[in-house]
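Two folds, back to back.
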Amino acid sequence: MRTSNLFVPEILQKVTDSVIGHSRITVLQPWARLEGNRWALKIRARLSVPETSTISTETIWYLLFDSASASVVAYPAKVGGISQTYQHQSFNEEGPANEPWRRGNPCLQRQAAVFGRSAWTGEPQAIDEKILWYLDRLLVWLDAAACAKLNEPGEPLELPTGSGLSSFPIVGFTSLADDLPFWNGRHGQWGWADLARLPGSIESYVIKAFQDKERKPIRDVEWGHLISKQPACNKALWIALSSLPVVEPWELPRTWLALSSYLNSVGVNLGEMFVKVGADCRQRRMDNAPMIVLLGFPISATIGAKPTRYHWLAIGGLNLSDRRAKKNGFRATEKTRQFIDQSLASSTTAMRWVRTMNWSPEQIRTRAGRENVVCKRVLVIGAGALGSAVSENLVRMGIYDLGVLDADRLEVGNLTRHALGMDAVGHNKALALASALNLLMPDANVVGLASFFPPTRMEIAEQVRSFDVIVDCSGSDGVLDALSAFDWREEKTFISLGMTWKAEGLLAFTASETAFPTIDAKQRFADLAAPPTSLVDAPVEGIGCWHPVFPASASNVMLWSALGSQFIIEAIHSSERRCEYFRQLADGSVERLSG
């Protein structure tokens, strides 16, 4: 730790003075200036509950304050601090040799109610009060850790952390309801898995398929259109477990020996497994790259609840013996290589954990703010400005099985308000948009149909009939008439979205019928008295033959696509026939009228 003997700011000295005589905190060293804007205070904290085998009555801590960001962090000291990792704490590794503290900072921002105390008010803003608040929180956390009350039944489950975990690399998987019974019947077994790269990404992979230890397929993983086409780029080793592989108090095994000891306790011999895995790779001449190890187990969303999903953790960099491996004092034989592989399982070599994430549809859209993913097949007719923006919203919101129909090609002039870019100019709008949308989400399964509506080709007509929800974004009365005349063969949810002249508003209609009710829709649109089309001041694109274009800015298109997308979701959940007019007022607010 590099320090300088600069004058301690008065506000920090005030903190030191405030804890003089504190019954549970003793300042061991005054504030020390670190590099940059950071300051460190060495303290001793005392438990108010009986000590445990891992938390002594007194432990040493460093409180770090960054004056630039006004952030406060507490780290256990390398000498006299706690060395294990607990719930709501970063992985407690040693960290750089020149720092006297470890890296296991507790999450002190959590509500104190989860530590068995009444919830406190928010973090103070004044610097001295904030630092003292963190010190009080540290004492609460320490007592809860010593009493094993950092997690209580009914609280959200927090997975343990391990060495090497960072944002990237990352391995994505899907965890569906039927995964649980499938894997529950394979506890203690192992096999192989195919990994593929997330298209166009860096250090991002997905689990595509599983095989047994004889490499016979046992389970494919459903992904979107693009990922399904991705070739496998690496083999992984999977091990099915009956429970979360945790080392007490709450961390992932740090070494192969620690992992081997845990696996032995649940009936899995890691050394024997490595012998078989290594021999198989060498025999198949697939021993030239490190492997990822996948550990699977049932998991629940809250502590103490019944498991509802199957989860995977990953360890990177498994290096088993290749065909050229040898060991000093031993002959360079297959038997020696098997001995080396078996020995790895009992070594104290540190493991590197790799971040994993459940990319199932409902999980990956947690940030979208919607609890229920809409599992419907939706066809969008018209891939223009509004249709492209609506389609993008739908895929992000959870409608990942989507069709887009349009016969036109994208022109440069479309780029002012279209979801596509220059690389799509000259391409069919529907096909180009489908290609772009399939890159949005791992589960996106979007198909483009280069056709007018109604389609003249039988195979496209059958594809159109296969969708549950039909969304018209063409802005054409002729398409509305065609929607009514087309033979759908069964009831569909119809939705029509159209921007009014100059994108002043949005007309939206929905009905669940066996044919689109064109007469009723047109009448309701007329009754809402939207501004009529006027070519008097219409903008002209190009020079020569007068060619007016529909005036609408990208911001207007985004506004109406957002409201239109919400209208679609509402229509899917409710079969009620209705018509609405969203109208933008002079102050920028939007008025919603029903007709």
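---
second:
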Amino acid sequence: MKVLFLSDFFSHSFSGGAESNDENLINYLISEGLEVKKDSCMSVTPSDIRQYDQIIVSNFTHLSAECIAQLVKDKNFIIYEHDHKYVATRDPSKFSNFEIPRNLIINEDFYRAAKVVVVLSKICKDILEKNISGVNVHNIGCSLWSSKKLDFIESLLGREKKEKFAIVDSPNPIKGTEEAKRICAGKNIDYDLIKISDHETFLTSLASYEGLVFIPQVLETFSRISMEAKMLGCKLVTKKSLIGMCSEQKLFSLTGIDAIREIRNRNKKAFAFFKNSLLNNDKDKDITVILNCYRRPEYLKEQIDSIRNQTIKPKEIWVWVNHHEDNASFDFGSIGADKVIKNDHNWKFYGRFSAALLAQTKFVALFDDDTIPGSRWFENCLETYKTHPGILGGVGVLLKENRYYGHNRVGWSNPNESVQEVDLVGHAWFVERESIIDLWREEPFCWDNGEDIQLSYMAQKYSGTKTYVPPHPAGNLDMFSSTKGMSYGVDSKATSRPDNHQVFYNQRDECVRNATKNGWEPVYTRLS
């Protein structure tokens, strides 16, 4: 596997905390047998990016719009977040409750397109998820050190300490040297200013002090220097709300050898996470989402946000638009879909299933226009598929003997604790693209109704595929296929509305009668 590591700067030209993190990660990946090439964001081109299987993007302020567009298109990159490049000010701490004004949020699509955004502390994860929905954020809860450097820090333990505190002598105003001096003066804390030049010389000097006074002026995503002080057994005087490490409560409570051991453990897990994220073949989980729009365009943005916020991200989201005056003036460019397929005809229920044939992913997920899934719905489906491969859906129908469409339901409207085999599913479908092909092996019996019946009937008849409802545990809406069906699906725009019941259910009776006459075997026939 060829891995490209992109950053504005690397440790050979700039000795910052981010660059140290990056160098330690790169050295680990190379030691594990991965082929890693470093390239500067200032010089890399889209054609360079296309040569690599996976990309890690560190600091990227100099990355061109063309390169970002290429990465968003390919969706094969990880963002390693060292500061806050999703906010124009680069510091979310200036806003109340870290709620960033919408006009100051930047690079939103870039963050959403990443396979994963790796952050260094809990507070960074919380802020990013609060301000940009649909981002897959993973918190490693640490900065990265080499084993050699941690051995060196450990070797400094037990040294005699001065009854003084250290302040980092930095000309960079965001490091808060002047503020630290004012605090020491106000609290009568005796201190020395120490410079950061050679890192090991600095650590040796810091180890001889009782503590460190460090008052950053922006939110530090982790703060290596604060953690190094803790590992060296120093007290830490700081503003906790501006130190990411302080949001890692267990880690912040430790000092000396205990802190070093915890960092070793967290580093080990973090390195393994990066390696596994690069090596895992996500194509086996790739999902194309197809939404249907007819008379409820007002729900599309909420649907798309809920889908972007899934724990398993889809590769693309498409919207199939059947013609109706209710959506004629709707701005489909405002909803964040990857593709919009607009028709000058109402293809009713089957049209979206024709679009599914164009998907180039293993799985296709289709949703009715009133269906807002919980954040773990795709995760739920993929886990179910491992043990029950077939057509999966949100509401399952179990037909009753000799009752045509008489049935019991299971799913979001009647929660099931475990996987349930059913005759057909509706509201939300999660299927292999190959199963969609089965739908078209015969002309639909009724073009105006019963696409869900026809799909399960054809799949069973031609490929022996069964139909299941994944678990919908009561009280755990994150795993549900639909979280608002009881309110969104019962308005006057519903096809199954009361004034249309007789026509709607007569058609479905006929669809079931046709299918059973021509070889469909409902669950009750196999249980008797």
